[in-house]
Amino acid sequence: MFSPSFARAIVVSAAFLATPILAQPFDGSLFSEMRWRNIGPYRAGWGTCAEGIPGEPDTFYFGAAGGGVWKTENAGRTWTPIFEHGSAASIGAIAVAPSNPKVIYAGTGQPEPRYDVISGDGMFRSDDGGRTWTHRGLSATRHIGRILVDPRDPNVVLVAALGHIFGPNRERGVFRTTDGGNNWSPVLFVDENTGAVDLAADPEHPEIVYAAAWQVRNYPWLSYFKPNIGPGSAVYRSADGGRTWKRLSGGGWPAGDIGRTGLAVAPGGRVYALVDAPASPAPPPGTAAPLRDGMYRSDDGGVSWSHVHSGSDLATYYFGRVTADPKNADVVYVMGRSIRRSDDGGKTYRVVKGAPGGDDYHFLWINPKRPDHMVTASDQGTVVTVDGGKTWSDWYNQPTGQFYHVETDGRFPYWVYSGQQDSGTAGTASRGDYGGLTFREWHPVGADERGWDVPEPADPEIIYGSGLGGSLIRFDNRTGQGTQISPVVETTYARRPTEVKYRYTWITPVAVSKKKPHALYFASQVLFRSTDRGQSWTEASPDLTGAVPGTPGCDGEVTLANARPCGFGVIYTIALSPHDEDEMWIGTDSGLIHTTKDGGKTWRDVTPKGLLPWSKVASLDVSPLEPGVVYAAVDTHRLDDFAPHLLRTRDSGRTWTAIASGLPPLEYTTVVRADPVRKGLLFAGTVGGAFVSFDDGGHWRPLPGNLPTAWVEDLQVHGNDLVAATNGRALWILDDVTPLRQTMPERSGAVGSSPYLFAPAAAVRVRRNVSHDTPLPPETPMGQNPPAGAVIDYVLPRAVAGPVALEILDSAGRVVRSFSSADEPEKVAATRYFAQEWLKPAAPLSGAAGHHRFVWDLRGPRPKAEEYEYSIAAISGEDTPAEPEGVLVPPGIYSVRLRAGGKTQTQPLSVRQDPRMTASPNDLARQYELALRTAGEMNRAAGALSEIRGLRKRLETRKEKTFEDIDAKAAAFETAARRAGSRSEDSLVRLNARLSGLFLAIESGDSAPTAQEAVDSEALGKALEKRLADWEALKKEAAGSGLR
């Protein structure tokens, strides 16, 4: 608010530096075929709400805290996103119209006011079961807690809007529409600090409705120690469908200020109210104040209340949800760390679902027609039961994890590390050997949820992970053990900042120097340094958060103006300079930036002028190309300012320039990263997505691709890839951003009139899928692998006349593979004995106008085989290759040649060996030579067979004895059956098959041919030459008989 080494080696081919850069105005469709891919992990994140369709017992919906709306039609076996590209990702409430289940309403902005709560954009409606959505207003409410649809009319709707959590506003309370959301009336407004969080209607008399108002406010600092209790919080009753309301009081209802209330109405009109309230004030001397929180019950429509249960075992505030059984008024469920059930009208409870660590359940929906069918939404995900809670579906099938920061290591394939809110940590490979990313390719890395997880540069098996309250774990992947190495052993979680020596917030930063001895950094209000992997620590800074010892007014309620000097701030981000080991930068959540150039001996305050206190410095990035250039992302949404703020300094912090032009006006930013290859190329993440700037922040544009609407918390550039951590849609990778590095849209000039071929990045010689096991079922959740091969990008400014041709040439100028937009789809003579979903035709070379991304699989043409067989190395929905495929080319320098519109362009392409392989260049050259020769022999056998079949076709009409003899001799070349006097093993059909088997053996792995393969090759080659000579003799005989 204002007033490792291999990855670096393949970043870009050397030819790029000499390649002209494409200069044209930026068009959002220019890179339309660049695609983000979700890498999982498929470990679910927070589900905020859920509902089903009573008449379709296996169909359910859930809303995610940061991941949109999802649907299942098989009781939770699989889930599909149905609301993922709207203007908001956070879902607070969802409702299906009872009278028309095709009508669905989604209220955006989760209502739980935790530290990283995500706001929304009002109401959305679908009239086709979630296939399409339209925005229906109430954008300024930001957080919606509940939706009630009149069971008689899908256009009559009540909405409980909590409103702004970090500031006052009038767009809060209960709203009503009678036209499906086209127009809304504020029917219950308390004040600018109080909104509505819950609604409940009498199932037998829907005009009787109850609403829970909640006075809630969060602050920029971590304020878990502060209860949200206030005079505005209350429960209201309406007897006319929400048109008018009356505040409930007396009759046993708790007097005085209360907090959040959860509501449910059971059959017969019984009302349950779960109330968050402090003890009664001013108790008599010598007596304890009676508890006022817990479960209240009314059996007369809210006139009188019984306090049926009190105590801390029933959770409010963060939970505060109650669900009544639709058939039995005595049965009620309460959400919390576990789901608790009462069978005696709310008096006593037993846990019916929950695990150690706390699943944190937020919502339960029970099918009123089949109460044994339920769906519950929790911090761990959303699950379904169809047997009354005896068993539940899995939540390891929803890529809705909430991740904060992301790091990568230097291995190949590189691994991605991040902490997931509520669930733990994840290290996942960026590429799987078995065609995709499943449960086999990721594992926890030992630390706490939500923090930083940073691999050690010299030893990626060591990962440092932070957590709440100052936790820091050193995880050793070799042993699976995590060791606590924090400078402060005692946790400070939920402690008031003024009560502890070192304070921490929701996220604690970690950084590791890439230079020996790989110093480890950790932060509270001071910066800690360790040079022995956390065995010992020294303070590398004083308090840099703006604390002023002795500041008055630091007890009790603290004002915004006092919080920083009172010592509530922490260091939120650490940036180490790639140029100078002694240069470091830190940013605080209290709105300060400091830097040192002497390893922490002295620090300089370089906070931009006008940066208000508690403008959180979410990220700092020191330019890897330009010393003195630093970028900052400043997040002010916790000051109720949702504008994006990005800053740049070119003089080490002496002056700063705002660089947020072009970003959406209400999408606050949390990260900005500079590309390590091209100056001025920047990437940024906002609460709504990812953006790119080609002119050092002068202008921003959405990054191309298919990334769902999501809060992009962090970005890292790894080699040619851009890796994103999202708060609600797990982890993503934008593969191969080299076209962005070769584009200068800020240059003046019109779009070029000629086709343009980008210089491709180096390709690594990997195999698409090396599995020899039964494929995983289609229902198994799976992240995507990167393209297996060379990624070739080209742009056609307009559709060109004639076909577009693409050729791959080796270093000697020989064409090793060619493609054309005029090519017919390849038809392979393989028998499909499995479902069609296992096949995905290869994308053809396109001649249409626009950007095209084509992947050459690093193989030559497919050899001609009599029969092809589908490989067991299959991925449903991706592709099942028919074998044999073409020869895998060896590492080396190749050229890509594009012919389009009468123009020819050529770019160099480097193909590099998989660094995990041990085969020598000579080994691979011998392998390639033998495979190429074998493929050639297959083609010769196939060619001869084609001629033989042509001859026999002509002989079908000739009945002379001479021609019958010739036909019998020709048939012997094809036969595959043993008979007297024949050697079917030497038939051309059989020889082709045997050569095909040899080819597959030679190509089975990156290795020199075996001795037996060489022996078999020689034997089969001799047999083939014999049969081909026999065929030539027969051709002469046929010609001599007058048959041509």
Q: Strands across the major sheet, in which order?
A: 58-67-66-61-62
- Secondary structure class reads mainly beta
Instruction: Give the proportion of residues in helices.
Output: 10-25%
- Kindly report the name of the CATH homologous superfamily of the largest domain: YVTN repeat-like/Quinoprotein amine dehydrogenase
Mean pLDDT: 93
Largest sheet: 5 strands, mixed
- Count the DSSP helices: 7
How far apart are the first and last residues' alpha carbons, in Å?
88 Å
Count of domain modules? 4
Question: Secondary-structure blueprint of this entry?
Answer:
Elements: H1 5-9, E1 36-40, E2 47-53, E3 56-64, E4 69-72, E5 80-83, E6 91-96, E7 104-108, E8 123-126, E9 134-135, E10 144-149, E11 157-161, E12 173-177, E13 185-188, E14 194-201, E15 209-215, E16 234-238, E17 246-247, E18 261-265, E19 271-275, E20 294-298, E21 306-309, E22 322-324, E23 332-334, E24 339-342, E25 350-353, E26 361-366, E27 374-378, E28 381-385, E29 403-408, E30 415-420, E31 424-429, E32 436-437, E33 442-443, E34 453-456, E35 459-466, E36 472-476, E37 481-484, E38 510-512, E39 520-523, E40 527-530, E41 538-539, H2 560-566, E42 571-576, E43 584-588, E44 593-596, E45 604-605, E46 616-622, E47 630-635, E48 645-649, E49 657-658, E50 669-674, E51 682-686, E52 690-693, E53 701-702, E54 712-718, E55 721-726, E56 731-734, H3 738-741, E57 756-757, E58 763-765, E59 783-784, E60 790-796, E61 805-809, E62 815-820, E63 850-856, E64 869-870, E65 882-883, E66 892-900, E67 903-913, H4 921-955, H5 961-974, H6 988-1002, H7 1011-1040
